[in-house]
Amino acid sequence: MSSIRCIPAPSLRVGMYLHKIGGSWLQHPFLRNSFLLTDPEDVRRILESGIDSVWIDESKGDALQDVEAVGESLYPSPSGADVALPDTPQQALPAASRPQRPDASTATPLDLEIERARRICLAGKAQVQAMFSDLRLGKTVDQASVMPLVEEIADSVWRNPAAMISVARLKTHDDYSYLHSVAVSALMLALARQLKLEDRLVRVAGIGGLMHDLGKAFMPLEVLNKPGRLTDEEFAVMKTHPAAGADALREGGCMPEVIDVALHHHERMDGRGYPYGLREDEISLLARMGAVCDVYDAVTSIRPYKRPWDPAMAMREMARWDGHFDTRVFNAFVKSVGIYPLGALVRLASDRLAVVVEPGTDSLLKPKVRAFYSTRSREKILPQVIDLAAPGCRDSIVSPESPEQWGLSNLEALWL
Ligand SMILES: [Fe+2]
Fold first, then answer.
1. I need a surface site. Which of 22, 186, 288, 303 has the fewest CB within 10 A?
2. How far apart are the CA of 265 and the centre of ligand 1, in A?
3. For the whole model, what pTM was predicted?
4. 48-81: per-residue pLDDT in tens?
5. What distance in angstroms lies between residue 215's CA and the mean position of ligand 1's atoms?
6. Distance 212 CA to ligand 1 centre (A)
7. What is the CB neighbour count within 10 angstroms for residue 339?
């Protein structure tokens, strides 16, 4: 018999493992779907949100002791996350109160989450590719169809943000457009939580990130896939993708905030962006967030006309772009991704090059790194993992480095 059963929400108790909540993910009182209930406040939030039944997993938490269960007879036993659930009326959501980063005791180990993130990216790429195809065929897209994917991305980010953000960064020229959407969605989710936005807006940010560049589906393929820099005329064509995307999303009945991100993610705080040259307060918070996440993923990805920037180099360079980004949003972004993100190449005080294998938890400046190259002998050395935050560690990061400058490639092998 399945260990998963549907119970009335009032029967929910601390100690039970919440497997799934009914209704739309957009309206849940939590950003996560499945977790062990340890806080009576979480039980209260479920009851107050108007949800009347939930699924619990009795193999992972306390069982329902009496006959209150709605049980398997009413709802066929679900085998996994894609179970069909009854819709329930929802009410306004309380403000978000989740920690900004999973603490070390609850975060999923990085290597495990990297494997999951890879699978989600693969599925995400296929789904975004299908949306591009649908739009090119004159079909519409709707946000409801992307919600399960955004929910998966969000769950991965909550479990261990470094994994999904770093895996989604790795792409080839061919899958850039599709994986870029997945990457921006993950970055938007992490940033939204860093900014302590209310739960609904965190979800909207994730959806906005996934759908922000759909207007590219309407761009001529020879321009979109051009293996070189665009001419002024071609760039003028590309500048129409935000409006084209916004029109398509409007037609598909998407939320105004999601349309707003698509339309304004290329605006700049100094008014030098496009399509409208909006300035500062004229640009919404979600669109400002979209601008930062979009640029970070673009500059750290392989493009036809340039090699990707190293993640730490990207952080340093973007911080110098006066007038482009909202400073508060950018600073929160650095906190959410890390000054030295997973996979970043850094130079150590000990004259070695190293790759970040785990972002710092207490200090963003002290990640765990794998040293593999001597800058004195300019030779590879036996790799050594160093926790720069460990008591007694006397090594430290001197600067971010460009892999290209050192003639290094395939650094992913050092952290994947
Ligand atoms: Fe764009």
1. 303
2. 6
3. 0.77
4. 777 777 888 888 888 876 434 443 333 233 333 3
5. 8
6. 7
7. 22
